[in-house]
Amino acid sequence: MKGIGVSPGISIGTARVIRKTAAALTGILLTNESAIPTEIKKYDEAVGAAVKEIEGIIARGAASLPPESIEILEMQIELSGDPQIKDNVVQRIISDKKNVSDAFIEVIRDTVEIFSNMEDEYMSARAADIQDIGDRILQHLQEARATTAAASQPDPLAFGPDTILIADDFTPTDTITMDTSQVIGFATRAGSRTSHVAIIASARGIPAVVGCGDELLLISNGDKIILDSLNGLVLVNPDMDTLAQYRLKKLAYAQQTDRLAGLKEVAARTTDGEVITLLANIGEPDDLDQVFEKGGQGTGLLRTELLFMGRSSFPTEEEQFEFYKEIALRSGDKPVIIRTLDIGGDKQLPYFGLPPEQNPFLGYRAIRICLDREELFITQLKAILRAAAFGNVKIMFPMIGNIRELRSAKQVLAKAKTALSREKRTFAENIAVGIMIEIPSAAIIADWLAKEADFFSIGTNDLCQYTLAVDRMNEKVKDLYDPYDPGVLRLVHNVIEQGCKNNIPVAMCGELASDPLATLLLLGMGLREFSMSAPSIPFIKNIINHNSIVKAKEVCKKVMEMNNSKDIITYLQEVQP
Amino acid sequence: MIIKDYTILSPEGIHARPATTLIKLTKQFKSVFHLKKGDTVIKLNSMLNILALAAKNGETISIIVEGEDEAPAAAAIEEFFTQQIKNL
Lengths: 577, 88
Description:
The structure holds two protein chains of two kinds.
Chain A (H helix, E strand, L loop, with lengths): L3 E4 L2 E9 L16 H27 L5 H14 L2 H14 L3 H17 L4 H5 L1 H19 L17 E5 L4 H6 L5 E6 L7 H9 L3 E3 L13 E5 L4 E4 L3 H22 L15 E6 L4 H7 L5 E5 L1 H4 L8 H15 L3 E5 L27 H6 L1 H14 L4 E6 L5 H20 L9 E6 L2 H5 L1 H4 L5 E4 L1 H9 L17 H16 L4 E3 L10 H7 L3 E4 L4 H9 L3 H12 L4 H11 L2
Parallel strand pairs in A: 2-3, 3-4, 4-5, 8-9, 8-15, 9-10, 10-11, 11-12, 12-13, 13-14, 14-15
Antiparallel strand pairs in A: 1-5, 2-6, 6-7
Helix pairs in contact in A: 1-2, 1-3, 1-6, 2-6, 3-4, 4-6, 12-14, 14-15, 20-22
Chain B lengths: L1 E6 L8 H11 L5 E6 L2 E4 L3 H7 L6 E7 L3 H13 L6
Antiparallel strand pairs in B: 1-4, 2-3, 2-4
């Protein structure tokens, strides 16, 4: 069966099914008004005991639990003592004469339903938290009812080796308190990428497949399970051939992970000696740690939007300068390409107050705003120019669609330099100035732009959506979004060729740069700089180091002769190393 | 009574972390706190009600503080919504 793989890996193990029995209503009504205060008191005591229990889990787990889990538990303390929940319970006790346990079960049931139906994926996942505190408080309520019975604390779950846990869903308490040392996989019927089990599985590096559907609950204890979270698959009692096949896959995956980790110090070089530059896309200084850890040779794209978001006014020149300077210093002599502000479209700033537009992606955004609001642009350019004195910094303008915009942007840059000279500031006079190629018109006139820009960086995401007239945020048409469309590939090819002819470097910073299927094709087109999210770097390096430019050119020649993306994708899958 | 509008600056809106911090903050004062979003007004003591609002980044809400220590309470709210929340 198929679900959503949330923590990559392959596990082969034995099923352990965890079933929960739903709490049953008693239907017993209170016969006497005088019972009301007693019922309310029972509720308060049960809440108190539940809170104490959660505090105990936090205290014991302070050192070993991930910070996300502690946060969840702290939220649960607040939820347990929530005055609104208590009001609702008390109201049912008083007006409907329900006993406290029935009243509480109903309140939790209703609340869980409200949250489950919330559209926000994060909020609907909080239904699990409410169910969780509900179960915990209920347990204390029912213990109180049977005071004579020995306090029956259920045994903490203990698992045999190679256990794969199967459940409807895991509550936060399950995932946090469970001893997962023997657990090698999770599969759930419900759940999404933001479920607790997804968080814990990723943090502990245990493969998990969530949202498998009702079929999952047919699994019995002791069933042999293959969990392939790379493909979101759960296989039950597989035959010997499948089992053998997956043992090999598992081994290959483990070897690949090890080998890729060992690539950090190895240069990206094709088997025929062509050296390729692998850079990273980052948003803030702390991202650099991971870049260098994964063997990145610098920053191919610094998105400056993060600096402008999550605040109530524009950052000053000094604030921006400090931010860029930190990245420049931490990068040493490695390149840092800073893209000037790219807001508008899907990225809005509350304090900027841009009115909603009918076609935001075709509207007032990026360089268009900067050229219109010159004071904002100059502030950013001055900060970048000053920071450039501390490292190997380059400037890149987004959304350039014609020669005029490039020239205007460069004029503003000249003004920024003049202002800095007048202020007697230190700055990098000869900073390199490049442009993003992400509008089809720019890709078509790449020959002219190459004569006035110091470098190109191809933004395939926007280039693809503009070329194909497909809004990639629109669910209804997003399947039409296809970077392997021959029209898109011709534009990409043209940009790379024109860059090479005019002796300016061409990089790619869009998603296609990190797509292993595209690596050979792009090398064959002549691309020598790839910029991507840091975790992808070892994977792309591995492909480069096992292939030659000769082969890549041949792949490129064949692909450029194919007139539809289906053939192109099939062919690229065949020639994959 | 002190009323002031704020834009939600936390990238994920008022999720579990900001909500927990906010409730803990209000408990330090004797004043009563209300939060208004659109036509909905809730008391700022219930995690359930705060989460149910699902206030997102960039949305505007009003905070109403009333009580003997409303001045320092409103100052703490100001600090929370303009500074603290950015890191939550």
